[in-house]
User: Which sequence fits this backbone?
Protein backbone atom coordinates (compact mmCIF):
# COMPACT_ATOMS: atom_id res chain seq x y z
CA UNK A 1 0.00 0.00 0.00
CA UNK A 2 1.59 3.25 -1.15
CA UNK A 3 0.35 5.36 1.76
CA UNK A 4 2.09 3.06 4.26
CA UNK A 5 5.21 5.18 3.68
CA UNK A 6 3.34 8.22 5.03
CA UNK A 7 2.52 9.15 8.58
CA UNK A 8 -1.12 8.72 9.42
CA UNK A 9 -3.16 11.92 9.49
CA UNK A 10 -2.78 13.08 13.12
CA UNK A 11 -6.29 14.56 13.00
CA UNK A 12 -7.92 11.57 11.25
CA UNK A 13 -9.81 14.30 9.41
CA UNK A 14 -11.46 12.29 6.63
CA UNK A 15 -12.47 9.50 8.98
CA UNK A 16 -13.87 11.91 11.56
CA UNK A 17 -15.76 13.73 8.82
CA UNK A 18 -17.44 10.50 7.75
CA UNK A 19 -18.15 9.46 11.34
CA UNK A 20 -19.66 12.89 11.99
CA UNK A 21 -22.18 12.38 9.19
CA UNK A 22 -23.01 8.81 10.17
CA UNK A 23 -23.33 9.47 13.91
CA UNK A 24 -24.97 12.87 13.63
CA UNK A 25 -22.47 14.65 15.87
CA UNK A 26 -20.02 17.51 15.12
CA UNK A 27 -16.46 16.56 14.19
CA UNK A 28 -15.13 18.36 17.26
CA UNK A 29 -16.95 15.79 19.39
CA UNK A 30 -15.07 12.83 17.89
CA UNK A 31 -11.57 11.58 18.65
CA UNK A 32 -9.93 8.66 16.84
CA UNK A 33 -7.49 6.48 18.75
CA UNK A 34 -5.62 3.21 18.31
CA UNK A 35 -8.46 1.12 19.69
CA UNK A 36 -10.59 1.48 22.79
CA UNK A 37 -7.66 0.37 24.97
CA UNK A 38 -5.78 3.51 23.90
CA UNK A 39 -8.81 5.71 24.55
CA UNK A 40 -9.33 4.25 28.03
CA UNK A 41 -5.80 5.29 28.93
CA UNK A 42 -6.48 8.85 27.78
CA UNK A 43 -9.55 9.14 30.01
CA UNK A 44 -7.60 7.93 33.02
CA UNK A 45 -4.72 10.33 32.35
CA UNK A 46 -7.06 13.29 32.02
CA UNK A 47 -9.49 12.65 34.88
CA UNK A 48 -7.68 10.58 37.49
CA UNK A 49 -4.99 11.72 39.94
CA UNK A 50 -2.99 9.24 42.05
CA UNK A 51 -5.22 7.93 44.81
CA UNK A 52 -8.48 8.83 43.04
CA UNK A 53 -11.21 6.22 42.71
CA UNK A 54 -12.82 4.70 39.62
CA UNK A 55 -15.82 2.36 39.73
CA UNK A 56 -16.48 -0.68 37.54
CA UNK A 57 -18.27 -4.00 37.74
CA UNK A 58 -16.25 -6.81 39.33
CA UNK A 59 -15.11 -9.04 36.48
CA UNK A 60 -15.78 -6.70 33.55
CA UNK A 61 -13.22 -5.91 30.83
CA UNK A 62 -9.92 -5.69 32.78
CA UNK A 63 -7.96 -3.21 30.67
CA UNK A 64 -9.70 -0.24 32.27
CA UNK A 65 -8.46 -1.35 35.71
CA UNK A 66 -5.00 -1.86 34.20
CA UNK A 67 -4.86 1.82 33.24
CA UNK A 68 -6.28 3.02 36.56
CA UNK A 69 -3.71 1.08 38.56
CA UNK A 70 -0.91 2.11 36.20
CA UNK A 71 -1.61 5.78 36.87
CA UNK A 72 -1.89 5.31 40.61
CA UNK A 73 -5.67 5.20 40.95
CA UNK A 74 -7.91 2.79 42.84
CA UNK A 75 -10.64 0.61 41.34
CA UNK A 76 -13.76 0.01 43.40
CA UNK A 77 -15.50 -3.09 42.05
CA UNK A 78 -19.25 -3.61 42.26
CA UNK A 79 -20.66 -7.17 42.00
CA UNK A 80 -22.89 -8.10 39.08
CA UNK A 81 -26.56 -8.85 39.64
CA UNK A 82 -27.68 -12.46 39.90
CA UNK A 83 -28.72 -12.20 36.23
CA UNK A 84 -25.12 -11.21 35.32
CA UNK A 85 -25.99 -7.62 34.45
CA UNK A 86 -24.22 -4.52 35.71
CA UNK A 87 -25.84 -3.40 38.96
CA UNK A 88 -26.51 0.16 37.83
CA UNK A 89 -28.05 1.26 41.13
CA UNK A 90 -25.09 -0.04 43.14
CA UNK A 91 -22.57 1.46 40.71
CA UNK A 92 -24.12 4.93 40.98
CA UNK A 93 -24.27 4.60 44.77
CA UNK A 94 -20.61 3.56 44.95
CA UNK A 95 -19.61 6.51 42.76
CA UNK A 96 -21.36 8.93 45.12
CA UNK A 97 -20.11 7.32 48.32
CA UNK A 98 -16.48 7.05 47.20
CA UNK A 99 -16.41 10.33 45.26
CA UNK A 100 -15.32 8.47 42.15
CA UNK A 101 -13.94 10.40 39.21
CA UNK A 102 -14.71 7.78 36.53
CA UNK A 103 -17.26 5.02 35.99
CA UNK A 104 -16.56 2.31 33.42
CA UNK A 105 -19.53 0.54 31.86
CA UNK A 106 -19.44 -1.85 28.90
CA UNK A 107 -22.75 -2.17 27.04
CA UNK A 108 -23.12 -4.87 25.76
CA UNK A 109 -20.91 -6.22 28.49
CA UNK A 110 -17.65 -8.10 28.18
CA UNK A 111 -17.45 -10.91 29.30
CA UNK A 112 -21.13 -11.60 30.05
CA UNK A 113 -22.63 -10.50 26.71
CA UNK A 114 -25.66 -8.99 28.48
CA UNK A 115 -26.93 -5.51 27.66
CA UNK A 116 -29.08 -2.64 28.92
CA UNK A 117 -31.46 -0.52 26.90
CA UNK A 118 -30.30 3.01 26.18
CA UNK A 119 -33.19 4.34 28.24
CA UNK A 120 -31.86 2.41 31.26
CA UNK A 121 -28.41 3.94 30.78
CA UNK A 122 -29.97 7.39 30.51
CA UNK A 123 -31.78 6.93 33.83
CA UNK A 124 -28.54 5.64 35.34
CA UNK A 125 -26.79 8.87 34.31
CA UNK A 126 -29.35 10.82 36.33
CA UNK A 127 -28.08 9.03 39.46
CA UNK A 128 -24.39 9.58 38.72
CA UNK A 129 -22.75 12.47 40.64
CA UNK A 130 -21.94 15.53 38.56
CA UNK A 131 -18.20 15.34 39.25
CA UNK A 132 -17.95 11.87 37.67
CA UNK A 133 -17.48 11.01 33.98
CA UNK A 134 -18.93 7.80 32.57
CA UNK A 135 -17.12 5.69 29.99
CA UNK A 136 -19.65 3.78 27.92
CA UNK A 137 -17.72 1.07 26.10
CA UNK A 138 -19.81 0.11 23.07
CA UNK A 139 -17.29 -2.20 21.42
CA UNK A 140 -20.08 -4.71 20.66
CA UNK A 141 -22.89 -2.27 19.90
CA UNK A 142 -23.23 -3.47 16.28
CA UNK A 143 -24.42 -6.86 17.56
CA UNK A 144 -26.92 -5.45 20.05
CA UNK A 145 -30.60 -4.58 19.54
CA UNK A 146 -31.30 -1.07 18.33
CA UNK A 147 -32.66 -0.03 21.72
CA UNK A 148 -29.19 -0.46 23.28
CA UNK A 149 -28.10 2.90 21.86
CA UNK A 150 -28.20 5.89 24.19
CA UNK A 151 -29.87 9.09 23.05
CA UNK A 152 -28.38 11.84 25.21
CA UNK A 153 -26.01 14.79 25.09
CA UNK A 154 -24.95 14.41 28.72
CA UNK A 155 -21.55 16.19 28.97
CA UNK A 156 -20.25 13.56 31.40
CA UNK A 157 -20.70 10.69 28.93
CA UNK A 158 -17.75 9.37 26.88
CA UNK A 159 -18.96 6.81 24.36
CA UNK A 160 -16.33 4.53 22.81
CA UNK A 161 -16.64 2.36 19.72
CA UNK A 162 -14.26 0.19 17.75
CA UNK A 163 -13.59 -1.18 14.29
CA UNK A 164 -12.25 -4.42 15.80
CA UNK A 165 -15.46 -6.44 15.95
CA UNK A 166 -18.17 -6.18 13.28
CA UNK A 167 -15.82 -4.26 10.96
CA UNK A 168 -13.15 -6.97 11.18
CA UNK A 169 -10.17 -4.66 11.76
CA UNK A 170 -8.89 -5.82 15.16
CA UNK A 171 -5.32 -6.13 13.93
CA UNK A 172 -5.14 -2.54 12.70
CA UNK A 173 -6.00 -1.09 16.15
CA UNK A 174 -8.46 1.73 15.58
CA UNK A 175 -11.51 3.05 17.44
CA UNK A 176 -13.11 6.34 18.38
CA UNK A 177 -14.70 8.27 21.21
CA UNK A 178 -17.73 10.58 21.09
CA UNK A 179 -18.01 13.14 23.87
CA UNK A 180 -18.11 16.78 24.90
CA UNK A 181 -15.73 18.94 22.84
CA UNK A 182 -14.05 20.23 25.99
CA UNK A 183 -13.10 16.67 26.90
CA UNK A 184 -11.79 16.16 23.36
CA UNK A 185 -9.62 19.27 23.78
CA UNK A 186 -8.17 17.79 26.98
CA UNK A 187 -7.39 14.54 25.17
CA UNK A 188 -5.48 16.44 22.49
CA UNK A 189 -3.06 17.67 25.17
CA UNK A 190 -1.95 14.16 26.14
CA UNK A 191 -2.64 11.84 23.21
CA UNK A 192 -0.04 10.37 20.86
CA UNK A 193 -0.78 12.42 17.74
CA UNK A 194 0.64 9.95 15.22
CA UNK A 195 -0.62 6.90 17.09
CA UNK A 196 -3.19 5.87 14.46
CA UNK A 197 -1.46 4.62 11.31
CA UNK A 198 -2.54 5.40 7.76
CA UNK A 199 -3.52 1.82 6.92
CA UNK A 200 -5.85 1.69 9.91
CA UNK A 201 -7.50 4.96 8.92
CA UNK A 202 -7.94 3.83 5.30
CA UNK A 203 -9.38 0.48 6.40
CA UNK A 204 -11.81 2.10 8.84
CA UNK A 205 -12.99 4.55 6.21
CA UNK A 206 -13.50 1.76 3.67
CA UNK A 207 -15.46 -0.29 6.19
CA UNK A 208 -17.80 2.61 6.93
CA UNK A 209 -18.57 2.76 3.23
CA UNK A 210 -19.32 -0.98 3.06
CA UNK A 211 -22.35 -1.37 5.28
CA UNK A 212 -23.40 -4.61 3.57
CA UNK A 213 -20.20 -6.30 4.79
CA UNK A 214 -20.81 -5.19 8.38
CA UNK A 215 -24.43 -6.30 8.19
CA UNK A 216 -23.36 -9.68 6.82
CA UNK A 217 -21.00 -10.12 9.77
CA UNK A 218 -23.79 -9.24 12.20
CA UNK A 219 -26.14 -11.74 10.55
CA UNK A 220 -23.54 -14.50 10.61
CA UNK A 221 -22.76 -13.82 14.27
CA UNK A 222 -26.48 -14.02 15.13
CA UNK A 223 -26.60 -17.44 13.49
CA UNK A 224 -23.44 -18.47 15.31
CA UNK A 225 -24.88 -17.51 18.67
CA UNK A 226 -27.92 -19.67 17.93
CA UNK A 227 -25.62 -22.55 16.97
CA UNK A 228 -23.72 -22.23 20.24
CA UNK A 229 -26.92 -22.08 22.28
CA UNK A 230 -28.09 -25.33 20.65
CA UNK A 231 -24.66 -26.85 21.25
CA UNK A 232 -24.85 -25.93 24.92
CA UNK A 233 -28.31 -27.47 25.23
CA UNK A 234 -27.08 -30.65 23.53
CA UNK A 235 -24.20 -30.91 26.02
CA UNK A 236 -26.32 -30.00 29.02
CA UNK A 237 -24.61 -26.63 29.50
CA UNK A 238 -26.33 -23.34 30.18
CA UNK A 239 -25.28 -20.33 28.13
CA UNK A 240 -25.67 -16.62 28.80
CA UNK A 241 -27.96 -14.86 26.32
CA UNK A 242 -25.36 -12.88 24.39
CA UNK A 243 -25.61 -9.68 22.37
CA UNK A 244 -21.96 -9.74 21.25
CA UNK A 245 -19.80 -11.91 18.98
CA UNK A 246 -19.13 -14.49 21.71
CA UNK A 247 -21.08 -16.86 23.96
CA UNK A 248 -20.29 -17.91 27.54
CA UNK A 249 -20.79 -21.59 28.43
CA UNK A 250 -21.45 -22.31 32.11
CA UNK A 251 -19.18 -25.20 33.12
CA UNK A 252 -20.60 -25.35 36.65
CA UNK A 253 -17.53 -24.41 38.65
CA UNK A 254 -14.13 -22.77 38.26
CA UNK A 255 -12.13 -26.01 38.34
CA UNK A 256 -14.17 -27.57 35.52
CA UNK A 257 -13.93 -24.39 33.47
CA UNK A 258 -10.16 -24.34 33.88
CA UNK A 259 -9.82 -28.03 33.03
CA UNK A 260 -12.04 -27.61 29.94
CA UNK A 261 -10.02 -24.62 28.75
CA UNK A 262 -6.77 -26.57 29.12
CA UNK A 263 -8.16 -29.61 27.30
CA UNK A 264 -9.30 -27.41 24.44
CA UNK A 265 -5.90 -25.73 24.31
CA UNK A 266 -4.24 -29.16 23.94
CA UNK A 267 -6.31 -29.50 20.78
CA UNK A 268 -5.26 -26.04 19.51
CA UNK A 269 -8.57 -24.40 20.45
CA UNK A 270 -8.17 -21.15 22.39
CA UNK A 271 -11.07 -19.93 24.53
CA UNK A 272 -11.22 -17.41 27.37
CA UNK A 273 -11.66 -18.15 31.05
CA UNK A 274 -11.75 -15.52 33.77
CA UNK A 275 -10.41 -15.55 37.32
CA UNK A 276 -13.02 -13.28 38.88
CA UNK A 277 -16.29 -14.73 40.18
CA UNK A 278 -18.96 -15.16 38.95
CA UNK A 279 -17.28 -15.62 35.56
CA UNK A 280 -14.63 -18.06 36.72
CA UNK A 281 -17.04 -20.92 36.07
CA UNK A 282 -17.57 -19.94 32.41
CA UNK A 283 -15.59 -20.33 29.22
CA UNK A 284 -16.11 -17.64 26.60
CA UNK A 285 -16.12 -18.74 22.96
CA UNK A 286 -15.91 -16.38 20.00
CA UNK A 287 -18.36 -16.95 17.14
CA UNK A 288 -16.33 -18.06 14.15
CA UNK A 289 -17.23 -19.00 10.60
CA UNK A 290 -19.58 -21.95 9.96
CA UNK A 291 -16.58 -24.22 9.33
CA UNK A 292 -14.87 -23.05 12.52
CA UNK A 293 -18.07 -23.52 14.54
CA UNK A 294 -18.42 -27.09 13.28
CA UNK A 295 -14.80 -27.84 14.17
CA UNK A 296 -15.27 -26.32 17.61
CA UNK A 297 -18.47 -28.27 18.24
CA UNK A 298 -16.79 -31.58 17.39
CA UNK A 299 -13.77 -30.86 19.59
CA UNK A 300 -15.88 -29.47 22.43
CA UNK A 301 -18.02 -32.63 22.48
CA UNK A 302 -14.85 -34.72 22.64
CA UNK A 303 -13.47 -32.60 25.48
CA UNK A 304 -16.73 -32.81 27.42
CA UNK A 305 -16.54 -36.59 27.15
CA UNK A 306 -12.94 -36.58 28.38
CA UNK A 307 -13.61 -34.25 31.31
CA UNK A 308 -16.72 -36.17 32.37
CA UNK A 309 -14.63 -39.35 32.56
CA UNK A 310 -11.89 -37.76 34.72
Assistant:
Amino acid sequence: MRSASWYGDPESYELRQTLSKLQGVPMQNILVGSGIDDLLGLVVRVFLNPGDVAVASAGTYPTFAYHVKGYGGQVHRVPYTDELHHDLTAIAYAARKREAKIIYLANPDNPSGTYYRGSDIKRFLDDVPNHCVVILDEAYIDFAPEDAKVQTEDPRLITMRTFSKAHGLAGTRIGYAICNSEIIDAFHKVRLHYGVNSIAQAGALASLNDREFVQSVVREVEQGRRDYKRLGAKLGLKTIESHTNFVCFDMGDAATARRTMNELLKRSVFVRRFDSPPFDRFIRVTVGSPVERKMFADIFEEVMHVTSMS
